[in-house]
Structure formats: C-alpha cells, structure tokens
Amino acid sequence: MDVNGKSVLLTGGSAGIGREIARQLKAKGAKVTLTGRDPARLAAMEAEGFAVIAADLSHPAGVDALVAALGDRPIDVLINNAGLGVPHDVRNGAPDPDAADGCLYANLSAPVRLITALLPALRARPQAAIINVTSGLAIAPNTASSVYCASKAGLRSYTMALRAQLRSEPIQVIEALPPVVDTQMTADRKMRKLSPQECARQIIAALENGLDEANVGMVKVLRAVYSLSPALARRIMLSF
After folding, report:
1. CATH code (residue 119)
2. Which of 56, 65, 97, 187 has a C-alpha 20 to 30 A away from that of 85?
3. What percent of the chain has pLDDT over 70?
4. In angstroms, rounded to a whole number, what is the distance separating the alpha carbons of residues 49 and 138?
C-alpha cells in the first residue's frame, strides 16, 4: 500500500511506538488521526499537526466514545496500537483483578470492538488495512506478565482468523509483533531494547510491502526458534 494520502486512525499514538508510527506516516503523506489518554501528550501531537481524540480504551464506554467522535470521516488504515501492561505474578501476592480486567479490555476487547464498529468504513474504501500490534510474547509467554501475554496471544489468534475472513476483500490484515522496545512501559527493564523509531519503521514497511506479519527485531529469532521447536521457544521465554 502507498500510504501517501491515506487516512489513518492510530490508537495509542501520543507516546512510544505509536508516536513514531504517527510521525513516520505523516512524513510519507498520510493523514493521521491519533488517540491517547494524556492531555499534555495529545496537545503536543496536535501542535505537530495531527488530529487528536482523547480516548481511554480500557473499557467499553471509551471505545464507543471514540467511534462517536470519529463520525463519518473516511478511514483507510486502522492501527490498533494502544495497550496496557500490568504486573500479574501470584508469587508476589494477590494480583489486582481490576488492573487485569483493564489490561485485557484495552489489549484485546477494544481492538475487536473497534474493528467491528469501523469495518463498514474500511469496506467503503477501494483499498484498506488493519494493523493489530501484539507482541513477541504472543508467540511464547514470559512468566511475570501473564495477563499481558494472554491478551496479546488472544489478539494474535483473532488477527489470524480475521485475515482469513477478509481474504477475498481488499482489506489487508497485518499483525505487528514488536520485541522489547524502549518506551515508558519498559523503562524499568535493564536489557537490550529496540528504539521506537526502528520498530515503527518496520511496522510501516510491512504495510507498504503487503506483508501479513511484521516480526520486528529479535522477534524474527523467536519466530525461527518457534518454527523449529515450540516447546523450546516456550522454555526460553518462561525463564524470564
């Protein structure tokens, strides 16, 4: 897909990977509407020339408010990038079930609900695309982030099924699987991280080149290991 002139809705676009996707798409001529929860960050992106919508996608009302705010504007590309990460490790005491619910909703239910609501608008375009941002942890989970891993694995399965459902239509369905990226969510992790700029570049390249998956950075290695031995890939990841 040539993104020049395309209208893009990008959730979670005011920071991290989403902010870099927005900037790189805008540089290529796309018209980007982005969502976020932080008023200051949204104002900063609006000052850069983006259309912005305040949206908390961790509950149904937030998704419905976003759809209402969009109205009947055309959408060529929907990028479900917004997500939450929460600690959920029973070895450290009882996890917060409400935090788990918010994570599951933001990472899985909100994309499903948003796609369902916006599919008529996407079908009205001669060429369209849906990008669901999951994680390398959707392939094999780690130990400490069990709820986050489950939500991303669920979105991965949904994306595969959706792609099959839309195979005969001019709607490209892409799964983007980032590794650990240097964002606010991973600020406390002392490990090698990919830059959000490079992660965004690889995701956009998948869109431009018509790929079904963007296995970003070290996720390519994980995918290779998983293809040889799923059990080995799980053992490696569960050691973290």
Report:
1. 3.40.50.720
2. 65
3. 96
4. 34
